[in-house]
Amino acid sequence: MTDTYNKPLPLPDEASQPFFDGLVNDTLMLQHCRTCDSWMWPVTQRCRNCLSADVEWASSSGRATLYSFALVHQVYHPGFADDVPYNVAFVDLDEGVRMTTNVVGVENDELRVGMKLIATFEHVGEGQVIPKFKPAA
Amino acid sequence: MSTVAIAGLGITQMGKVYGRTATDFAAEAIALALEDAGLTKADVDGLLIHSNNTPEMNPMLQMSLGFHDLNVLCAMSAYGSTSSSMINYASHVIDSKQAEVVVMVYADAPLRQGGSAGAAYAKARPAQGMDSFNAVHGFYGANVGYALAARRHMELFGTTSEQFGAVAVAQRQWAMMNERAQMRTPMSLEDHQASRWVVEPLHLLDCCLVSNGAVAVIMTSAERAKSLRQPPVYVLGTGQAAPGDSKRTDREPGIYTGATKSGAQALGAAGVSINDIDVLEIYDCYTYTVLVTLEDYGFCAKGEGGSFVEDGKLAPGGSLPTNTGGGQLSSYYMWGFTPLAEGIIQARGQGGERQVDKHDLVLVSGNGGFLNFHGTIIMSPRES
Lengths: 137, 384
What we know:
The complex is a heterodimer of chains A (137) and B (384).
Chain A: H1 17-24, E1 29-33, E2 39-40, E3 55-59, E4 63-72, E5 86-93, E6 98-101, E7 116-125, E8 128-135
Antiparallel strand pairs in A: 1-2, 1-3, 4-5, 4-7, 5-6, 7-8
Chain B: E1 4-11, H1 22-37, E2 46-50, H2 61-64, E3 72-76, H3 82-95, E4 101-108, H4 117-120, H5 130-136, H6 141-157, H7 161-175, H8 189-194, E5 197-200, E6 202-203, E7 213-221, H9 222-226, E8 233-241, H10 259-270, E9 279-281, H11 287-297, H12 305-309, H13 327-330, H14 337-348, E10 362-368, E11 373-380
Parallel strand pairs in B: 2-3, 2-4, 9-10
Antiparallel strand pairs in B: 1-7, 1-8, 4-7, 5-6, 8-11, 10-11
Helix pairs in contact in B: 7-11, 10-11
C-alpha cells in the first residue's frame, strides 16, 4: 500500500513514539497524569494540567463527539488532490481532549456537530496507521 | 489623562512588491515614521521588533538597522495581538522614563514573484512528531483552523455564510477609498458567495490577503508628542487576554475569545463604555474573526454577530464604521499593525475620503493563533 499511499505519513519523534506504536495495534494511546488524574493531548512530557512529570500512557476509550468540521477544497498537498473536498474534524474524546482527525464512513453532507463517533484505524503501510473516527454504532 | 501618545506612523508600499527583504521594508517604514513625526534616528532610544514568520525579525535587527545606545530593545510576539502588547509595553517604559522615543516595527516579505499567496507561508520541511499529525489529516495552515471555529459558530447559533459576506463587502467599500489597498474593485454579496471555497465554510473572499511591506509606529510621552509634527494620538487604555488551550474539551477560545476580557480591561483603563466607541479597527484574518470579536466586545449578544453585521452597519455610512481602510481582507496584511495603522490615521483625522466624521474614540484589536490571543487598544486625539 505504501506504493499508492501518497499523503504525508506520521513522523514520530521520541516523545510521540508510544502514540504511533499504539496505532499499529488499533489502540488510541493517550497520556494520563497520575498526579491529577487528567488526560492530555497533544503529546507532552509533563502534564498540561498540573505540570507533574508523573505521566503514563494508557488506552483511550476511542469514544468521541464531533466538535466541528471543515471541508478542504484547496489542494495543499498533492496526496489529497483526488479527495477534495475532504473533511478535517475536531473531535472531543470522552477523556476530555480535542483531537484533529478525519471522519470516515459518512458523507460530508451528513456530518453533524454533536454526532457520536468511535476511533477507527487506517492501515496505510508497514507500521503506518492513521487514526480516524467513524459514526458510533 | 493619557501620559503617552503615538507620534509617528510609517507605511511602505504594500502587497506584490518583489525583490526586497523584510529588513529593507522595516528600514523604510522606520524612516517614514521618523519623517512623519519630525524626529531623527538619533532621537530613538527604544526599539520593539515584531517577531513573525520571517527569521529577520529578531533582536539582531537592531544592528541591521544601525541603532546604537538604545535603552530598550526587545523582539516581541503574541502573534497577531502583538501590536497591543507593544503599545502596552512602550507605554510603561515611557512612563517609567526607561525610554522616551520608542519605535515599533512589523515587516514581512513572504510573497515571491510567480508564487501563490497560499505558498507564501508553506513550510519547507515536513513536520515531525505531533506537528506531523495535522499534515497526515490534511490540516494545513490557518484556513482550516478558522474554518473549524466558523463552522462551530454556524452550528451553535445559525450564523450564515452571507453574514460573513456582509463583513467582506463592507470592508471592500472602505478599501475602495484607500489608495494603499491591494483590492479596490467593487465586491457584491453575490461575488462573495460565488468566490471559490478555500476551506468550507470559508470562501476565498472570507480570507485575508498576504502582503510584502512594513509598518512602523513611534510612541513618546504625551508632552513630547505635543511638540512634534503630527497631531498626537493618545493611548487611553490597553488590554490583553490569552484564553489558551483549544485542545481541551472544556475550552473553546474559537467561540469565546479573549476579546471579552481584553476589551473590558482596555475600556476600564480608558474610563469609557463600548457604546462610546466611534471607530473600530478589528483584527480580520477572516470575516468570522470580526463577527466573533464584535460579540465578545459586547456590541451584541453571543451568537448574534451574524444578524448584527448583516445590515451593513460596518460599511461607509453605517452606524459602526469598522475596518475603515479595508482591513486585512481588502487592504494589506501586516497582522495587528494593519488595524493599528488605520486607527492612527482615523484618530488624527487624516483618512481623506474615508475619514469618519466622529473619531474621538478609536478601538483597535489584535488577534493571534487560532483565536488564542487577543489585544485591545483605545486611542483618541483627545488627551482624556
